[in-house]
């Protein structure tokens, strides 16, 4: 059994309570949501903290998926499993079900949260790529109020986000625009493993022409933010295998992976290309089939 | 349906039966039945070392080296000692003062219990803390200040003998290089002559990477030394409690009768729990010093980075054949990475384990192997990880190189194998490296596997898929194992002969207790061994208690590894039951007032020949043996016996495995679609337990073939120190296993049984790799090394398959 260093533990009763605890306890305090990133790091003694503020009681307040006409709002404490099992979410954004099926395993998904995933900002983490593809923005609250930042501004690099010390991520907002669909694909060495590389794509079309397309990659470099060149390339063109291939090449060139146990640089670049093509193709097929989503069955 | 001989049909039919078998049967002897131990495990009522809580028990944690190679300049423990909950902090210097800093390994080398002069691998034990609780012990480790003077590490096994390589074993007097040992087998000259005349010679470099047994339960112990009585009790994760006790006695100087080693339920061993680790010795020392019970349980990282690894062979294989596909000879040179200390667990005269069976299942003219073993700055070990002492490596080599030959000859791999099998009438067959295979009918097993797989249809499907650019592969492997070590004339571990004791006692009411020296780590011994006895003596399985794992309660024997339980202890159990039955027959003759020769045995009772009405049951006899009244002349009361079984030879199980894979051409991901495993382990005691063993081993094989590897960076840091980095397969990577069998009994084993615990681990990696390589044929690939992760398969598809180390 791996045992963490000593720490104190408190439970927050509300978002405001969590913020005031963070302010009171200072730099050495950390929030714990699902704990599936933080607790392993504590047990491996890779992180130094003195206070743990448990926000699981905030699930009532921050655990929700609200699908509106032009926006989907997801509370930060929404668990992976809730994202996986939400038909309303799959209907607008099938990319979530695609991704959630291949994030970790049921034990992790039962506890891990979208807020924790985004705030952990692990370079191999999948939901950042999903949110990037969907052009999400993040709601961050502190004692002085709320601010909303785009994914590009939220994700500052490996393990680094726009969330400050006494701040909490409360919500993720995803714009809903007509004629769109999305898809996610991941290559892993084994079920439950982190990605060798993954890619998420969202495409919007009008009258057979792509009006916007966005791609987010995971595990291929410090910065998994979107690839604007792909959007520029695809806008105003009808979908074709050639176009996917060009987008794949852009993805491959834009990323910056490193060689590790999961794979070589060359292979990961290849996957960035291959998975970009696959997800764009699937997203377009879903649009053409008249399905924004199919509850994740069309993987 | 293809033409199959009758026996094959029967075997195939039996296979179908198994699919619908009723596991709830309770046979009076051999047969399918649920495991007696499962209710305990399923309900979470197993009792493992870490469950043990003793009054006043303290906790031990080990400080390990963060670097692979360094001189220790200084160690300051004062801050740790000042921790309010710490009872003791011990360093290598403290142990050295007692002559306990070094201990023998299972291969006549020595290993540091705690480093004194230098550290030789990342994770090596440097000091330990004993504290009131586990958390404090761990916290105090961070208060120990060690200054290291870092040395260049030897990480690449191929460079270990380079003149400029840093010498690792400076502790060995006069040691000037990193050479560990040389070993050879077979006939070099004869092999050379055969190679010279062969039409075809195929050469292939083949690596079996370092892997880890990774049992679910890590290693640990509770040591309890009672100062007044001088008694040491050690609850420990041991696959060989008796051997461990003797070694502790020899090392510590404690008298052996004052040492009791207890292995309670063990959460998986796979060879990982054969060696004696420094942690056990530390816990014993701590209990001796403090006079309180001390618990040490390693965590997952400690288990992966410091305990016995397996494999790590870099092999050059060569095969010589005629152009028609008659294999003439196999030759190999092996570079073996033994880590910092040679901790290989194998009979002492076999430094390369049983690698000598690399001639496989084939009738050759000649064979030769030379091996060079070296030290590197990696964890010591070389354990029998479900490999029957390096047979995994041997079988992988031969089954891979035979496939390379098939590739070059453009011959079907099945046809090539069939052409070269040792034939049934050649048994007992002495191989060119001196192993005497006891029995076999290889072609029959292969035919059953081909039939189950629908081999011809699979090849047709493959052809269609290839035409469409899809990648489907069919891999075939055939293995013969040598298990059940072993005859005491040849085999010992640290001077202890590998014979096994067994004791059977029948109580007055006819219930029995069997005491065995082997040790279950999940193999189902409580069931299998009760069935062996039930078959011989007719007492219901439920009425037979099997006791193992406690040196005070069981006769001496060398434990469980290398699939030796059934071949050795299983034979002992059958023979001790027969001995009891012989006595029972004499008592029965008295009870029925006839001569012994007039009785015949009907499982469970003796009956007067020709007079079925006159009989006594084994239970009647048991009561009589303990009861009032006279017993026949010269017969003592009681119904029990003890024996020690010395096997005359190993047993040689074999099997034919066929694997079907699909590879995504875009991502290079490998999916094992089907796996057919036909095993022949001789007489089958409990088919369900055999299938369980096979399922586990096949899953293990998927792990090794596709994802597992203990890897290091160039500084010697182990980068597989967690189960997120060292991947073991899940249910999602495993297909529905299709198991079948044939039965070719061992002629020398009392009940004809052969070991099966490791067959599938041995046989499956080559089947899977052969399938992947077969799928990649369109890319002109003849070989690719494990682990075949998507990235490594993709490398192969790009024309540059790379060795993993
Ligand atoms: C075995 C395993 C496999 C995994 N595989 C994958 C995978 O394939 N793909 C993948 O994407 N992820 C994977 N994960 C990670 C998993 O998804 C985590 O649960 C997730 O990354 C973190 O979510 P959490 O709720 O558990 O966060 P926690 O561990 O509780 O917290 C993570 C960090 O975020 C901070 N935090 C949490 N919530 C908030 C908030 N609302 N506001 C501000 N800060 C906050 C915490 O302080 C902490 O620093 C895996 C995890 C494990 C254990």
Helix content of chain A: 25-40%
Rough outline of chain B: globular
Work out the radius of gyration of chain B: 27 Å
Strand ordering within the main sheet of chain B: 3-7-1-14-11-12-13
Largest sheet of chain B: 7 strands, mixed
Structural class of chain B: alpha+beta
Biggest pleated sheet of chain A: 5 strands, antiparallel
Largest interface: A-B, 29 and 34 residues
Q: Return the average pLDDT of chain B rounded to an integer.
A: 95
Write down the oligomeric state: heterodimer
Low-confidence stretches of chain B: 1-17
Proportion of residues in extended strands of chain A = 15-25%
Attached small molecules: flavin-adenine dinucleotide
- N-to-C terminal Cα separation of chain B, in Å? 45 Å
The strand count of chain A comes to: 13
- Name the beta content range of chain B: 15-25%
The residue-averaged pLDDT of chain A reads: 94
Describe the secondary structure blueprint for this structure.
The complex is a heterodimer of chains A (299) and B (805).
Chain A: E1 8-11, H1 15-25, E2 29-32, H2 38-43, E3 51-54, H3 59-62, E4 65-67, E5 71-75, H4 80-84, H5 87-92, H6 94-100, H7 106-111, H8 114-120, H9 126-133, E6 137-142, E7 145-150, H10 151-154, E8 155-157, E9 160-161, E10 168-175, E11 180-187, E12 197-206, E13 209-218, H11 228-234, H12 241-254, H13 265-288
Parallel strand pairs in A: 1-3, 2-3
Antiparallel strand pairs in A: 4-5, 5-10, 6-7, 6-10, 8-9, 11-12, 12-13
Helix pairs in contact in A: 11-12, 12-13
Chain B: H1 6-19, H2 38-42, E1 58-64, E2 70-76, H3 78-82, E3 86-91, H4 92-97, E4 102-104, E5 110-112, E6 118-119, E7 125-131, H5 134-141, E8 145-150, E9 179-186, H6 188-197, E10 200-211, E11 220-226, E12 231-236, H7 241-252, E13 259-262, H8 278-290, E14 294-297, H9 300-306, E15 310-321, E16 327-337, E17 366-374, H10 391-409, H11 413-420, E18 429-430, E19 436-437, H12 442-453, H13 455-467, E20 471-480, E21 492-493, E22 496-497, E23 500-506, E24 512-516, H14 525-537, E25 544-547, H15 565-592, E26 599-602, E27 605-608, E28 611-617, H16 618-626, E29 639-645, E30 654-663, E31 670-680, H17 687-706, E32 737-741, H18 759-775, H19 790-797
The complex binds flavin-adenine dinucleotide.
Flavin-adenine dinucleotide (FAD) is lined by residues 30-38, 40, 76, 80, 103-104, 108, 112-113, 115-117, 119-120, 125-127, 163, 168-169, 192, 194-195 of chain A.
């Amino acid at each position: 059994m791996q045992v963490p260093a000593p720490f104190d533990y408190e439970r927050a009763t509300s978002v405001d309570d969590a913020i005031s605890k963070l302010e009171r306890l200072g730099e050495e305090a950390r929030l714990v949501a699902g704990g599936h990133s933080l607790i392993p790091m504590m047990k491996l003694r890779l992180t130094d903290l003195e206070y743990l503020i448990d926000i699981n009681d905030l699930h009532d307040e921050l655990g929700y998926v609200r699908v509106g006409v032009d926006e989907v709002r997801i509370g930060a404490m929404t668990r992976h499993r809730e994202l996986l099992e939400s038909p309303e979410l799959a209907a607008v954004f099938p990319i979530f079900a695609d991704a959630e099926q291949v994030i970790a395993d049921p034990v992790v998904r039962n506890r891990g949260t979208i807020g924790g995933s985004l705030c952990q900002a692990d370079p191999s983490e999948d939901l950042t790529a999903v949110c990037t593809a969907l052009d999400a923005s993040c709601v961050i609250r502190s004692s002085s109020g709320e601010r909303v930042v785009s994914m590009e501004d939220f994700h500052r690099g490996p393990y680094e986000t726009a969330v400050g010390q006494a701040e909490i991520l409360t919500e993720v907002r995803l714009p809903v625009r007509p004629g769109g669909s999305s898809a996610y694909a991941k290559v892993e060495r084994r079920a439950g493993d982190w990605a060798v590389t993954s890619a998420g794509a969202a495409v919007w079309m009008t009258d057979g022409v792509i009006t916007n397309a966005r791609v987010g990659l995971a595990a291929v470099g410090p910065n998994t933010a979107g690839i604007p060149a792909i959007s520029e390339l695809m806008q105003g063109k009808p979908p074709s295998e050639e176009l996917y291939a060009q987008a794949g090449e852009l993805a491959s060139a834009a990323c910056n992976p490193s060689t590790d146990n999961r794979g070589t640089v060359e292979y990961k670049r290849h996957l960035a290309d291959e998975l970009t093509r696959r997800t764009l193709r699937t997203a377009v097929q879903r649009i053409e089939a008249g399905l924004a989503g199919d509850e994740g069955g069309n993987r | 349906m293809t033409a199959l001989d009758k026996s094959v049909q029967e075997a195939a039919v039996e296979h179908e039966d198994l699919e619908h078998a009723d596991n709830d049967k309770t046979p009076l002897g051999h047969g399918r039945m649920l495991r007696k131990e499962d209710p305990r495990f399923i309900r979470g009522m197993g009792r493992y070392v870490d469950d043990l809580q003793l009054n006043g028990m303290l906790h031990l944690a080990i400080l390990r080296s963060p670097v692979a190679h360094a001189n220790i300049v200084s160690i300051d423990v004062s801050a740790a000692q000042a921790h309010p909950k710490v009872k003791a902090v011990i360093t290598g210097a403290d142990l050295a003062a007692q002559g306990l800093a070094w201990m023998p390994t299972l291969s006549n080398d020595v290993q540091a219990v705690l480093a004194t002069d230098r550290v030789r691998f990342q994770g090596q034990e440097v000091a330990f803390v004993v504290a009131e609780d586990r958390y404090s012990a761990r916290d105090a480790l961070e208060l120990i200040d060690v200054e290291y003077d870092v040395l260049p590490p030897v990480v690449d096994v191929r460079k270990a003998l380079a003149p400029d390589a840093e010498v690792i074993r400076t502790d060995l007097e006069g040691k000037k290089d990193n050479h560990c040992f040389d070993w050879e087998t077979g006939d070099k000259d004869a092999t050379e002559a055969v190679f010279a005349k062969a039409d075809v010679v195929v050469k292939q470099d083949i690596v079996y990477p370092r892997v880890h047994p990774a049992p679910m339960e890590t290693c640990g112990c509770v040591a309890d030394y009672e100062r007044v009585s001088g008694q040491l009790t050690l609850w420990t994760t041991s696959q060989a409690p008796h051997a461990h006790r003797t070694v502790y006695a020899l090392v510590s100087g404690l008298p052996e009768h004052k040492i009791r080693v207890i292995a309670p339920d063990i959460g998986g061993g796979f060879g990982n729990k054969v060696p004696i680790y420094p942690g056990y010795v530390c816990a014993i020392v701590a209990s001796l010093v403090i006079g309180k019970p001390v618990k040490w349980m390693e965590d997952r990282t400690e288990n992966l980075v410091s305990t016995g690894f397996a494999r790590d062979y870099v092999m050059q294989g060569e095969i010589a054949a005629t152009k028609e596909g008659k294999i003439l000879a196999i030759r190999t040179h092996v570079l073996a990475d033994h880590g910092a200390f040679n901790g290989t667990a194998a009979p002492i005269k076999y430094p390369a384990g049983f690698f000598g069976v690399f001639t496989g299942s084939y009738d050759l003219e000649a064979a030769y192997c030379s091996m060079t073993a070296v030290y590197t700055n990696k964890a010591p070990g070389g354990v029998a990880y479900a490999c029957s002492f390096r047979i995994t490596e041997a079988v992988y080599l031969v089954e891979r190189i035979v496939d390379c030959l098939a590739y070059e000859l453009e011959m079907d791999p099945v046809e090539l194998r069939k052409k070269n099998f040792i034939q049934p009438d050649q048994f007992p067959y002495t191989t060119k490296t001196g192993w005497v295979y006891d029995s076999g009918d290889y072609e029959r097993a292969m035919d059953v596997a081909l039939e189950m797989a629908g081999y011809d249809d699979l090849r047709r499907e493959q052809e269609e898929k290839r035409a469409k650019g899809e990648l489907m592969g069919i891999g075939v492997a055939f293995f013969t194992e040598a298990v059940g070590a072993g005859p005491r004339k040849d085999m010992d571990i640290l001077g202890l002969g590998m014979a096994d004791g067994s004791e059977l006692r029948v109580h007055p009411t006819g219930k029995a207790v069997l005491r065995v020296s082997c040790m279950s780590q999940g193999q189902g011994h409580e069931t299998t061994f009760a069935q062996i006895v039930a078959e011989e003596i007719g007492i219901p399985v439920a009425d037979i208690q099997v006791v193992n794992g406690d040196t005070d309660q069981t006769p001496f024997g060398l434990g469980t590894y290398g699939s030796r339980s059934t071949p050795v202890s299983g034979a002992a159990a059958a023979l001790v039951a027969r001995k009891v039955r012989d006595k029972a027959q004499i008592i029965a003759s008295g009870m029925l007032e006839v001569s012994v020769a007039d009785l015949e045995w009907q499982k469970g009772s003796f009956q007067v020949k020709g007079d079925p009405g006159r009989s006594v049951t084994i239970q009647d006899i048991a009561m009589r043996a303990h009861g009032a009244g006279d017993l026949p002349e010269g017969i003592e009361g009681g119904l029990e016996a003890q024996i020690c079984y010395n096997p005359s030879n190993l047993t040689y199980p074999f099997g034919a495995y066929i694997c079907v894979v699909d590879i995504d051409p875009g991502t290079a991901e490998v999916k094992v679609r089907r796996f057919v495993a036909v095993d022949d382990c001789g007489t089958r005691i409990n088919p369900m337990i055999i299938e369980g063993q096979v399922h586990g081993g096949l899953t293990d094989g998927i792990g090794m073939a596709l994802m597992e590897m203990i890897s290091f960076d160039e500084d010697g840091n182990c980068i597989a120190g967690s189960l997120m980095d060292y991947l073991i397969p899940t249910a999602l990577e495993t297909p529905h296993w299709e198991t079948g069998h044939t039965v070719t009994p061992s002629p020398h084993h009392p009940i004809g049984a052969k070991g099966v615990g490791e067959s599938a681990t041995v046989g499956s990696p080559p089947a899977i790799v052969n399938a992947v390589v077969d799928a990649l044929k369109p890319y002109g690939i003849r070989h690719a090394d494990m682990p075949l992760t998507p990235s490594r398969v993709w490398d192969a598809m790009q024309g540059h398959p790379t060795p993993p180390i």
